[in-house]
Amino acid sequence: MMNTQTTLQRESAPTHNSIGVLVWIAQTLSARTAPIAAFAVFCVFQAATFAQENPPPRPPKVTEAPTAPKVMMYLVVVLLVAGVVFASTMKVKRGHQD
């Protein structure tokens, strides 16, 4: 009876602290996968601890309304119009196959 209870206690994963989880992983997994799983559990607990210590990010406070770069917009419009005018005034070189 005592052996069955000990086996059942060892097989159920502890949930109260990270050290208990790491010990349970080391006891139940093979020698090759235990360090990988222990590292994964450690990373999860560290991420949870980091998230508890740091407040969530807040959006920045904007003091001025954003303005569009008017000079750049006009420059782009002028370049586009110049490109259209240049393309439409190019001489067409058609051969005798028309």
Q: Can you characterise this structure?
A:
The chain is mostly helical and 98 residues long. It has a domain at 2-53. It is built from 4 helices and no strands. It has helices spanning 2-11, 18-28, 34-53, 70-89. Helix 2 (18-28) packs antiparallel against helix 3. The N and C termini lie far apart (101 Å).
User: Which structural class do you get from the secondary structure elements?
Assistant: mainly alpha
Overall shape: elongated
Spatial gap, N to C terminus: 101 Å
Low-confidence stretches: 1-10
Residues in β-strands, percent = under 5%
Quaternary form: single chain
Number of strands: 0
The helical percent reads 55-70%
Order of helices and strands: HHHH
What can be said about the biggest beta sheet? none
Task: Explain the layout of strands and helices.
Blueprint: H1 2-11, H2 18-28, H3 34-53, H4 70-89
Give a short overview.
The chain is an all-alpha fold and 98 residues long. It has helices at 2-11, 18-28, 34-53, 70-89.
Characteristic key phrases:
mainly alpha; 62% helix; 98 residues
